[in-house]
Every structure is written in C-alpha cells, then in structure tokens.
Amino acid sequence: MSRTPIRAALAVVIRDGATLLVRRRNRPDAGLWGFPGGKLELGEDPQAAAIRELREETGLRARALQPLGQFDITHVAPGYRLHAVLCDAASGDPVAADDAEDAAFFPLGAVISGALLASRDVDRLALRAALRSR
After folding, report:
1. pTM value?
2. What is the mean pLDDT of residues 17-38?
3. Which of 24, 61, 72, 101 is the most buried (most CB within 10 A)?
4. How far apart are CA 114 and CA 109, in angstroms?
5. In DSSP terms, which residues pair with 39 in a beta bridge?
6. With contact defined as beta carbons under 8 Å apart, do 26 and 15 qualify?
7. Closest CA to 33 of 119, 105, 104, 114
8. What are 90-127's pLDDT values in tens digits?
C-alpha cells in the first residue's frame, strides 16, 4: 500500500539583512526556530500555501517571488516534501500565531552561523535566499 505524499511549503523572507523565523510549538520541531510554513491544502500550489502560512503564523502579508527548491524530509515522514518559496520583504512586525510560539527577524549572520537552535537546513536555506534576494 503506497502512502499519499505529504507536501508542505515554507515562506522564506529576507528583510534588511535579516531572516524571518518562527519558533515551532508542535512536533516534530517543537521549540526550534524555522521558516513559517505548513501543509498544502487540497488544490493549493506551494506559492499560495507559503503566503497563507506566513499570514497565519506571523500576521505578515507578502508576495511569492520565486521557488528556492524542494526538499525531501524523510526524517519526519516517508514522502514528506517541502517547497521553499522566497517571499518579498513583508512590511510590519511579525506576531506569533497559529502553531508559532514566537516570531522574529534574526540577523542573517546569526542564522547561518548556527547560533540559533533551528530546524535542519535553516542555515543553508537562509543563505540561499539571501543570495537570490540581492
């Protein structure tokens, strides 16, 4: 019996040299910092899901700019695929909501240095986004 693949999207926002992250409330990454994101709804594309999740978890509104890549995260579940989406520099201050305990912009250097207790590959994805957003 084959499992239905799980698809999710991440909203990667870089603003003024800082990266937006949320601290997860729920498993599998409870307590870790990561990008706002979640599962795609039926018929939803990754860009729309990233924008929706960004709004739900932080209150920020943005536009999807470009895909940053797809990542299989089999350590979470078989067939789990993340679609990372670079989003525009949303205005306003993030306010944690939904399954986010906290939300804040962090200097890119702190994110890529591993100074934060973050989900897997957050540092690499933040660097990729920063290079593409120039």
Report:
1. 0.93
2. 94
3. 24
4. 9
5. 8
6. no
7. 119
8. 678 999 999 999 999 999 999 999 899 999 899 999 99
Is 1 part of any domain? no
H/E stretch holding 14 reads strand 6-15
Give the domain extent around 78. Answer: 6-132
Per-residue model confidence (pLDDT) at position 28: 82
- From the list 119, 98, 102, 107, the residue with the least C-alpha distance to 55 is 98
**Residue 44 belongs to a domain with what CATH number?**
3.90.79.10
pLDDT, tens only, 55-89: 999 999 999 999 999 988 877 677 889 999 999 97
| The pair of three-digit structure tokens given for residue 65, joined into one six-digit string | 């700019």
Pairing between strand 100-107 and 18-24? antiparallel
69 CB-side CA count, 13 A: 12
* Residue 77 DSSP symbol: S
- How many domains does the chain fold into? 1
Does some domain include residue 38? Answer: yes
How many other C-beta atoms are found inside a 10 Å radius of the C-beta of residue 50?
A: 31
Q: Is residue 51 part of a domain?
A: yes
Does 62 map to a domain? yes
